Amino acid sequence: MGGTNAAEDAVPFSPLASHWFRNAVSFRNAVWFRNAVAALLVASGATLAAPSQASTLILSDTSNEAGVPAEWMDAEVTFGVSGSTLTVTLLNTTVSPSGFDVTDLNFNSSGDIDGLDILSATGADGDNLADWGFEGGVSFAPYGVFDWGVFALIQGNHPSHVVPGETQTFTFAIDCDAGATCDDSDFVREFSRFGSPNAQIAALFRNGPDDASARGAFVPEPATAALLFAALGALAYRRRSG
């Protein structure tokens, strides 16, 4: 997978946090780790720049096709919440010789989210909402059932497909449970169900080398997932009690 330079992206940690970062085992996304640690430090009262109000997950660390390595299927998916609107931004970071189009994206939400309605879809070709479908309860083997999924309605080659280097942005109206305060953490801490393995996000990558297609997903290691959940929980508590 296309890596992120930790030195370039690092925030100014305390010595203890820097030691924690250097000793993280097999952590494949330095930016994500930085944000998780930042959330924990901020919640504990440490002095650190305020964390972003958006959360980014990185594809892919697993593939359903033996002939298509996970590191060929690169994308960044950012979730941001403002008021009652969720914005999901998909950036296709695949590059030659293994460039792919992305045509499906699946994600999850917490129990605080009672529903989503798609509002807009915008890509390199402008407003392309008519070219995308949206549904809940998406079965996406082998990664199980996801709460939500967007998918290109036209297969083959089409301007609405997210080609290498391009960005596709979706907005959704959030139906937040009464009494809950919904934010980006509600969309990045949950896993799919009944999968092997279960994943936090997954996407379909098409039109690769020799017309290869595969499904890539983000499945954090248990220690990584525990760290993220702790960070997001602390951040959510801080936001909701602030």
Would you mind describing this structure in some detail?
- This protein is an alpha+beta fold and 242 residues long.
- It has a domain at 53-220: Immunoglobulin-like (Sandwich), CATH 2.60.40.
- The protein is 19% helix and 33% strand.
- The protein contains four helices and twelve strands, in the order αααββββββββββββα.
- A six-stranded antiparallel beta sheet has the order 1-3-4-10-6-7. Strands 2-12-11-5-9-8 form a six-stranded antiparallel beta sheet, with no helix packed on it.
- The longest helix is centred in the last third of the chain and has 20 residues, at 222-241.
- The protein is globular.
- Mean pLDDT is 80; it is low at 1-35 and 37-52.
Helix content: 10-25%
Mean pLDDT level: 80
Low-confidence stretches: 1-35, 37-52
Q: The CATH topology of one domain, please? A: Immunoglobulin-like
Query: Between the first and last Cα atoms, what is the distance in angstroms?
Result: 37 Å
The outline comes out as: globular
Query: Into which percentage range does the β-strand content fall?
Result: 25-35%
Radius of gyration: 18 Å
